[in-house]
Amino acid sequence: MFLRSLLFLPVYLLALSLTAQTTVSGYLTDGANGEALLAANVIELGTGQGAVANEYGFYSLTLGRRDTLRLRFSYIGYGSRDTTILNPPPTLAINQKLQTGSELETVVITSDHGERIEQRTQMSTVEIPVAEIKRVPALLGEVDVLKTLQLLPGVQSGGEGASGLYVRGGSPDQNLVLLDGVPIYNVSHLLGVFSIFNADALRNVTLTKGGFPARYGGRLSSVLSINMKEGNLNEWEGEGSVGLISSKLTLNGPIKKGRTSLLVSGRRTYADLIAGPLLKRTAGPGTETDLGLYFYDLNAKLQHKISDRHRVFLSFYNGSDVFRTEISEGPETYGGGTDWGNLISAARWNWQVGPRLFVNTTATFSRYRITVNSLSIEEEGEFRARYLSGITDLGGKVDIDYIPNPDHYLRFGGGYTNHAYRPGAVSLLSRSEDAVNLDTLIGSTATHANELYAYAEDDITLGALKVNAGLHLSGFAVRGKFYSSLQPRLGVRYLLRNDLSLKASYSRMQQYINLLASESLSLPTDLWVPSTEQVRPQQSWQVAVGAAKTYRSAYEVSVEAFYKNMDNVLSFREGASFLLGLESDWQTKVTQGQGEAYGAEFFIQKKEGRFTGWVGYTLSWNTRQFDEINGGRAFPFRYDRRHDLSLVGNYDLSERVGLSGAFVYGTGNAVTLPVYTYAVVNPQAGSHWNDNLFLDRIETSTEKNSFRMSNYHRLDLSISFRKQKKWGERSWVISLYNAYWHRNPYFMEVGPEWVCTDHGNGSTSCGYGDRLVVSEVSILPLIPSVAYNFKF
């Protein structure tokens, strides 16, 4: 009897607690379009207790029974709403709409700014409003999410004009990039110049650099979570732009008002439409040309409110780069090209099980594919070659939020993904009258792997101390090998005063996927491969400490110091490349070692008012060590950058004119350069070893990455002219990229010095000398652009 009573004690206590408490729950949404307001706030003014809405707008606040509840609903940039409830029942559902802009006349205006940076347990996380991203000066007028993130402390670019992210000493494959919860494997267009994210279709962008909550896993360095807009449930609206290299259009609105909405967004460049006719005119008579030179993105999202407790969403993205050319001259045809792109989709079901329990279930599909083609047709025969590579994921996950009271926010769940890796396959077709015909496929077998995870975390409030503690358990099965990992996560915040807090975090991460990439240049031909019995999973642990403060209710200030240790990071062996020899296994061409990164970051941001922007500064060190590279000695990672500074500002001169500017400064990238050369006899040259034509020149360096490119700095400017029309708003944006035309290095090359000799008789001879010189090559000068934007 005693044991039976003990087993049922939790049930008794739960029943007792329900009779002595009131739980208010519901959704917080934008009153104009019905979009969920993630991280919006609910506060009971009498007790000061509050709750924060999750990324789907759901909140739950459990309070002790009171005769009167005075609730305030608020969100940054929106007016607050106050609601008074007399004699509240044990459970109460309130779906609150918040207004902004011209709707504020009916709303209680307060100085509340929602949950401030010093109140949050989470550190090393930055949220940039999409509206701010759109205002940052853009290259060729194309707004780019990733280039804006590169302006944050702790985040670096891979080089001039590139959109890759190198976060706290990590590499691009160590970033988990999620679009509506679905992993994206290639985030770049045009060889990294632009990203795949169309800002007009996005709702929010959040970057986590450390102190990872337990719900995230699978990567070492960062989590970039991007969500698409859900669609306007009240009325149809649209926006778009026409620029120098691309145009885009986004439409969204209700299929059934208040219940079902649809969003469709498209973007395409048109370099081929301009260059194609020019190529045909220069080709000459009798020559036909076909040029493909563009990229496109297509986003779509459907949402349906089955009831107040059930909502379903369908998301879709397809984007691709097309680079190909074909030239025909009579019976002869030559051509080739490279195509690559992503296809993702997600089906999501939100279920509010009860006033304290919320369940999100998602089924996901993601595919990245790269194709390289070559074609040659002549009278003697034809030759065709195709290189294929890619990765396909099919998975599902369940995320559960349980909020028993304001002092605990529990999250737990799990997921499963089936990966199909195709590191590389070559299809060859050769036909000739004088030779043996060939039609074969090399390396077409896919490698399948299964990845699963489970997690649990709790955000606990203990007076001035707030703790986020959790565990992430992961497993990976590939070709009879199974890896597992238990990863503890801990975040701590101690509130010294209402506007100042101290924070600390610790996290372990494990990664089962690797990117075989050139360290010097990121190309779409970089290959995704799994951990295997020979290639161990990458691992890391990271600690961070810092302080956060809100100054004068408008400025968020944070200072952080971090240390990250990485194990089993990958690199090609010296002299190896995936393209060197199809007959050998990729596993024989890589080596694994250690990485270390540490430093300090400073960030101050202003999100509201006529002037908005931020200042970010990073001081950091970043090294790698491999037993088989650089004689086993540690060396600076190519993107080790001692100093990194960014200044971003947006200022509204009036309702019709706005100014924006961004300045960046960074220490030059580390590079390897030859320090001396010597000649050796070419064994194919016979005995004529004294003839320079039969000597090979060998270039040798001492230490890897022991030289630096010139320091990088650039100023971007833009001015926008806005005007309200009867049908909506239009604006012209004029931008200058690299406004003072600084020749930033893109790469360095080594070659013989060009020497001119004056013979004294009025004649001069020039030629290459024996001395080698190093020169820096710059590719992006001052670039003006103009774009026409419209919204209705």
Automatic annotation (TrEMBL):
It is a multi-pass membrane protein. GO terms for biological process: siderophore transmembrane transport. InterPro entries: Beta-barrel_TonB, Beta-barrel_TonB_sf, CarboxyPept-like_regulatory, Plug_dom, Plug_dom_sf, TonB-dep_rcpt-like. Residues 141-219 form the TonB-dependent receptor plug domain. GO terms for cellular component: cell outer membrane. Pfam families: CarbopepD_reg_2, Plug, TonB_dep_Rec_b-barrel. Residues 334-738 form the TonB-dependent receptor-like beta-barrel domain. It is found in: Cell outer membrane. One of its GO terms (molecular function) is siderophore uptake transmembrane transporter activity. Belongs to the TonB-dependent receptor family. This is Carboxypeptidase-like protein. It comes from Neolewinella xylanilytica.
